[in-house]
Structures are given as C-alpha cells and as structure tokens.
Structures
1.
Amino acid sequence: MALPRLLRRFKRQTLRRSAWGLVIVLAVGLLWVNGIHNVGASPGASAGGCVQPPAQTVPAPPALPGVTSADLPDPRTITGPTTAYTSTAAIPPVTDAPEALQRLPATIESSDGAMTTVADTSRILAVNQNGGLAAAVIGLGFGCNLVGRDTATDVEQLMPGNEQLPLVTQNGHELSAESILDLAPTVVITDSSVGPYDVQLQLREAGIPVVMVPIVYEEGVQGVGAQIQLVADALGVPEAGEALVNRTNEEIGVTIQGLGAMAPSDPEQKPRTVFLYLRGSIYYWFGAGSGADSIIQSIGARDVATEVGFEGMAPTNAEALVEAAPDVIIVMTLGLASVGGIDEALELPGIKQTPAGANRRIVDMSDYEVMSFGPRTASVLAALGVAIYAPEYAYAPDDAGGAEASGAPARGGRGTNA
C-alpha cells in the first residue's frame, strides 16, 4: 500500500539523515578538539582575548634628562661599566582598527624577486634576526594577528598583558619549517638574516605567501622607514605605514637632536666608540655598513670604524683595537655574559690596553634591542646615548641591581667621573 511504503521510505531517509548527522557532529567535534576553531583567528582571541596598547598617532619621543654637555663631565673621563636599558618596550599601534584601512589582496615584489600576493592577514608570522619586522607589524596594529615569533621578539614586553608566542627560530636565526607549518600562517614576512633560504622556499611551495624584505643594516637608522613601509604595503595598509613611518622618524629626529645637545660640540672631545660582538674568547668588530656605525653616529659619538676604514662585520685583532684607541666599547648583554662578565671581557686580547679598557668603560645593551631597527629605534638611541654621556641619569629597572658581585656589568647609572 502507498502509505506504508511512504512511511518505510521516510524511516529509511530519516535513518540515513540521522546517520550522516551523527557523522558530521562527530567530525566537527574532532576538528574542534584539534583546533580548527582557531584557524583564521588571532592567537590572542583564541587564548581568551588579546591586549594591545592604546593607539598613538602623534610622536612621543623618549624622555631625556634635561642636561646639556655643559652640565656633564667629559665623556672620555667617565669610568665604570653601564647597561643601557629602554624605559619601556611596549609599541603602541598607530591604529586600533587596521582592518578598516586595509586593501587586500596586496601584491608586492619580494627582495628575492618573487611577486607575492597576500590575501589574508589573520595569521601573521614576521621573523628576522633583530625582531624589527614583528615590531613593525605590532606598530601597524596587527600585533594580535601574530602567531609565532623569532628569538628577538618578546611579545610579553612589546604587548604587555599577552602571553608569549611559540618560537620558530633555533640558535637565533635558523628557521624550523615544521614549527612554522604547524602554526598555519596565512602570510610570512621575513628577510635573509634568518634561514636557510630553502625553508622560505619550502613555505612558498606549501602555498603560504612569503614576503622577503630587504635587510636595512647598511642604511641603519636611515633605513627604518623603508622597512616599516614595505611591511605595511605587504599587509595592505600603506596609509597606516606612512603614519608609522612619520611617527617613528619624528621620534628618531627629536632624540638625535636631544643627544646632540648632551654630546660635546668639539669633535675631538666626542668619545671614540667601537661596537664589539663578543662570543667566548673571540670578538668581532662591527664596522661601516653594519648598522652599528649608524647607531654610533646617531648618538653623537665618534665612529672609529668608519674613521679607520673598517667595513662590515669581521674578527679583529688586539693590535687593530689598541690602535683604534676607543674611549667606549659597546657590546651586547648576552655576548658580555658569554665571556663571563666585565672582568673577563677586559682580559680579551687588546681590550685592557685601550682607554675604554683602562677605565672599564664598557656599555652593554640587550642583544634584542640594540640593533632592532624599527618603531623602537628612538628608545634604543636614547638609552644608549644617556648611558654613554650621563650614566648617572640612565634608567635601570628595579631588578637590575646586584650584578657587580658576579663580575657582570654594573647596571644603568653606575659610571662615574674619573
């Protein structure tokens, strides 16, 4: 009869629909457990909310002590080590709503010649050796879209109130393809300071847009704006990039001007300064074109490497260092620790025979800050300049004391006039 057949067909269809419904529910449940609900979401959102500093469009240069060279001792006579600390690491974005300004897809030519199209910025991975690319992403307002980090990027400091992101670099500059693919980034912004290049090519082959950014070391402080703008263009927010470039350059300019007033006006009285990269029992001299030259010049000191024609980054010897006769030696904090501290650093060949060695005038700064060209450049210059010219005014965090007993560098403000 028609009605019973209809009921039987209805029952079979109902059972089939119920079975498929059960399969779909189970599948969705398994995918949810394995994290599909996080795909396309910012890590902050998936972790219960991401916190960004309030947006800031106007320049806010770091505060400098209200003193000039007339109020300060000859910087060549200051004795004792100093650590240069920035007073804050947080990077305020130029906008709270970058997506409202965004134009995607964005096609950009990478530094390796590849034309790359970016259509999705919901999961960003920005990695290089000095952390400048991630800093630019945060400054553009996309900090909550970051899904991983390089060694130099400390999200807990750059964006206070957030948890640390997964690390995708090993030994400071080696990319892990497996770690990156596990994070499912929708775009990778990087440069040749990390690699190997085969990993970046592997990511492209996996379908991930990889934007290679030119390294700005050679331009140093002058190259900061171009790097920020390229990151902004890749993320489809060129106007936000212009705003961040203008803010950053204005802060840098004001800081350089302020430090210029603290430095001696007579070139012969400016401290002869070198930047050494310490590792174990050897040291490298950072010369012209390394970025260190730009930093030294920006703080108003004498860049000895450029004066003597030393270029790039290369090992040096005791004879060359003694001949350079630096009054101040700038080093990275972890590098100083790798040799055992100030006392051990002074025993490295040639250092004790320089004016800086005789005065124990070594100024260290965090490896992750001192060469991090980006939105924080003005803060880096301010910390370093004050540490050299007016160490008694140098900022020091509350937990920075007690290092001298172990031979580590004295904390900010410990240098004294000889």
2.
Amino acid sequence: MVTPRIPYVLPFPPPPTHPKNATTLTAAIDAVTNFLESRNIVILTGAGVSVESGLADYRGGRGTYRLNRTYRPIFYEEFARNHEARKRRYWARSFLGWPIMEKAKPNRAHLSISMLGKLGVLNHVITQNVDSLHYACHPHLRTTELHGTLRTLTCLTCRSPYPRAEFQKALAELNPKWAEFLHTAIEAGIFDNDYRREGGIKTNPDGDVDVPGAPYTKFRYPPCPTCLNSDDIRVLVDAQGSHKPDGRLATNGVLKPSVTFFGESVAPEAKAEAEEMVDKCGGILVVGTSLATYSAYRLAKASHDAGKDVGIVNLGGVRGEDLFFSREAKGKRLRVDFGVGDVLAGVVMNLGGEVTEGVGSETPLGGGGAGLGG
C-alpha cells in the first residue's frame, strides 16, 4: 500500500496585500467590511479560527507541522485495519487529548461569524474544523462540516453513531491507570498551554496528545455496543469488554471518529452541500486556513474560476494565491495578513454590531477525533 502524502507541511510564500493600503489592522478591517457589502458571501474556515480557543493549528507560526516536524497523523487504512496502530497511535492519545477539546469554547472569531449571520451578512459557513465550535456557537447559521465532526463516532461495520463523550467514559473504565493519570494531569495543569510547551507534551488540532514515555501498548478500547449486542455480527472481546481482534473478525465493531482521516474521501453529502453553496454564492471569504487540503482549495478555486469574489484573511501564505491574485482574476479580491479574531470583531463593529467575549456556546458539545485539518 502506498502511504498518502501529507500536503504542504512547509510554509507558503509570503502573501500579497490587497488592497495595497490594507497594511494596518484598521485598514484591513475596513477592506473586509467593504468586501462583505454584497451580503452573498460564503465563509470557509480552518484551524486558525480555533487558535484563540486554545487549540493548535497545523501550518501557522506555532502550528503542529512547524513545531513538530516528525508529526504524522494516523491514516485511514492504518486505523481501519491495524489494531495496534488504532490503540497506540490513536485512541490512547485521543483519550488524553479529549479534555482539551471538551474544554474549548467558541472565541471571538466564532462569535463574530455568529453576529455576521444575525446581521444578514453571511448565510452559510463551510468549515474544515472538526472541533464543532461553529456548531456550538451559531446553530442559527447553517454550517457544513466539510471534514466531519468530533461529536460522534461511527461504527465501520454497522454504521451506527455513538457519542464521543460516552466513549470517553468507556475508555476510562477499561484503562483505570490512564484515567487516574489524566485526572492528576488535569488537576496539576499539565495540559495547560504554557506547561505543554515547557514539558515537551505535543498536542495537535485534532484532539490527540503525545506524552513522552507513556505505555501506549497497554491501552484498551471497547467495540461498538450495537454490534456487540447483535445476533448477526460477531465481535470478540476479552473478559473486561475490550476489543479483541482475531483474524477475519479483527475489524468487526470498530468505532471510528465521524471525521475524514488522511487517505479517506470527504463524505459525499458534505462535499455536495459545500459545492452547492459555492455555486449559489457571489463569492467566498477564506478565513484562518492555508487551503493546503485539496477539499478546501477546490472550493476557493471554483469561486475564482467562476469569476466570483475571493477574499482571504489569514496569517501567512495560502495555497493558490498566485492564481487568485493574478491579472486574469475577475471579481473582487481581498487579502489581509492579520489575525482572524481581530479582523472579524472589527468588521462586526463597523457594521453596528458587538462581539461580547466570554459568551458561552448555544449548543453543548460532545465528541473527539482526527481529521484532515486546515
């Protein structure tokens, strides 16, 4: 089997600025406000939107691929077919990282997008993020989760859904020493941002944590309860109820996060919905993403190819900028190199709204997983 390549782990070239006077935050905010005047814009978001929520991004200045050059996410075939990889490289690390994901709350960027929806400026969000913070912050604003959601798991055998929060409880019961360590680590603040950096603990945007020296080989995980209770599907478990692979039955009842892994295709429904929104809109605003994954890049390119408006708000370079800002480009163009939260909060103020930080999410979260990222 050929291992899929992780796209664009190195930084893109420095971005252009458009309009050319948008070199200060105030000018950038005004430029984005003008770009949104048509009120027929779809917003496409990536991991950079969730950085202020305490989550890592991929390709930013302190992103996973910049700080941890050896990082390689688990690929779909590894997870689906390899029991050892599944427990060592995924579920043990996800178990430790889940509290970080669960604690994360929508930040200024999410709240600003929510307000822009209420002001009638935006009517649809497409996100590459699998942290569900858009879903939590603005259920009133239609959101397409392009790479899936952390809230649930899906059985690879029977396709039944299962809440990620409930799965965390099952993992704790099967791994009491890990659960004790996790509780102690949380109480001591080991997973807080500053300590993580100083202690060499590596966290990634998809909710997994790598703790040096942890006994990953001893971790255990349960099977899908629907399959386990089915008369038609045989699932092997040990005396404690942990998944026990054996030959052809090795993959029966395997629960997988409801997200798109590397090496896996984007869900057809999400792909079709995103394409429909881009087809109907007057333009696209790319926010907090380098467009490194093709599933996101193709949406921005589709808007460009159709002669529609293309705007980008992102710190650092973005894939395809040589195309989007070429002389042949039609439609309005926008490119500002400032933080997403600062810019979007300023746009809301320009339009007569207000972003109140500290406001809780409208919808509770539950989930955890790994996806393609933005």
